[in-house]
Every structure is written in structure tokens, then in C-alpha cells.
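Run log, item B.
One chain of 215 residues. Sequence copied directly from the ordering sheet:
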Amino acid sequence: MSMPATPTAYPARLDVDYSDEHNRVTTLFRLFTVIPIAIVYGALTAGATKTVHQSSGQTVTSTSGGIAAGLFVATLLMILFRQRYPRWWFDFARELARFGARIGAYLALLTDRYPSTVEEQDVHLEIDYPDAERDLNRWLPLVKWLLAIPHYIVLFFLFVAAFVVVIIAWFAILFTGHYPRGMFDFVVGVGRWALRVEAYAFLLVTDRYPPFSLS
């Protein structure tokens, strides 16, 4: 399944195939079955902490931001100084986002398919590759993270609501085998909202301000 872009479509889009039936056994143990693939994702994205003991007896601890932070800084600098967005690291950032979305969908019970490191499966995430010279303001990446603050506030409450909805859906699946469609659409909508903010403020693929919308 693909999501064709339209003139009004936001450059970052997310959809998840709805299934009428869900596996009650894997749903019951989802917090445990997700651990191995979550560790893999964490190894890719987590920062490294380094502790140095100096001769004076002082202990100095430094923490690096990991791949995601490195991509953000490198992309910001390339747009700022060269007005370029190298295709190869855009492709890497997109695939990493897709991988994370598959894990998130599995953890949120939206799909029973164990997250693949390669295949699209039931989670369809698309990000349009930008023409940096034509589509991106070279100075805007410096303040996008700040401009997105209203979204962070709204997303905080949406994530809390989605957490509650997933817990309710967990019980619904255990008793009925079904994920209520309204709840499913809400959780996907929260993920869609978060993706647009990520694309704008951190992946830097668009200058279009994210809409305040779940759709």
C-alpha cells in the first residue's frame, strides 16, 4: 500500500492498516515480546555516556546524543552553509523513522506483525525528499525546534491520552479480539501528528508548519 502525495498533502505521512482480528496471546505478552527489537532500536539511537577519572580525582561524565542527534546537527549545518540535504542520509533518516514507527505500532497494539528491520509491513510511513535550495530556508532550521514548542505541549497531553487508550484497547483485545476502530484511529492520529513535528523540527525536510490535526 502506498500513499500518493497530493498538492495539499503534508510532506510526512503515516498510515497503519486496520485489522479486524488481533492475536490475544501476543497482545497479552506484548511488553515482553517487544523487548528484543526495542533493544536493537535503542542501540541505534541511544547516546553514549563516557566517564573519565582525572588524576586530580575529579570525575567527568560526558554524554553524546546518538545517531538521531548527529543527523539533526549534520543536516542543520548542511542546509545552513551549503543549502544541501544529502540524499543518502535522508534515506537513512527515513528508514530509521520507518523502523521506529513499526516498533511503536507493534507496542501500541496496532499490529500483530513483529517489527521488521527491512519490510514495510502494515505501517506505511512516507517522507518527501526536499529540494534544499528551492524548498528550504537556510536559516529556519536554527529556530524550528523553538517554533514547534506549541506542538510539544499538545503532544504531551495526546501521548498521555494515547497511553490510556492503548491500555483500554489491550483489555478490549483480550476479551473480544478486536481493537475498537475509534481508538485505533486516535492512536494512529497521534503518531501521525508526532511524525509531522519530527519531520519539521528535527528531520528538517520541510518548512511547512505542522497542522494541529490528527488526520
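Observations after the first pass:
- Confidence is low (pLDDT under 50) at residues 48-53, 59-64.
- Residues 149-176 form the longest helix (28 residues).
Flagged for discussion on Thursday.
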